[in-house]
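Re: beginner question about structure tokens

> Can someone show what the tokenized structure looks like for a real chain? I only ever see the sequence side.

Sure, here's an example I had lying around. Input first:
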Amino acid sequence: MVHPAPVVLDPYAPDPLSSADRGAAERGGLLAVDCSWNRLTAQGHLPEDGQNPRTGRRRRLPILVAANPQHYGRVAELNTVEALSAAVYLLGRRGQAAGLLLGFRGGEGFLEINRERLDAYANAADPESVRALERGLFGGPTPGPDLPSQGSAQRGASRR
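And the corresponding structure tokens:
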């Protein structure tokens, strides 16, 4: 039996994670790569095969603010546990999202400082609705096919 492909948190993906991804994540899980995305870019990056059913559905996180000590207050500079917690929260598992952050420095504040954004994104039906929320919350254009993801590379999916 072949395991269903996961939803892959990829800061270079054009589409943000939304509630429309819930079913795929429940079937195949979530995949977050724990590495420096700056280093990964220098060596290459995740394959750009979009919705390949074997490799998974690539999604970036919507714009959020880091609470980890290294990047506190910076937009889109989340560490891996913040990124994974945000993804779990957006897919409807708020208690599990909070549990992931236990024991991590700054973890207790991550959900608190992003609660309004997380709740709004979690209620968005699809990636386009998430992009509209990003524009409303942060102004200006949002990451998409023609723009780089958050910051220089939407470091939200995994940055130490």
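Each token stands for a local structural state, so reading them left to right follows the chain. Helices lie at 22-28, 37-43, 80-90, 94-101, 107-122, 127-138, 150-154.
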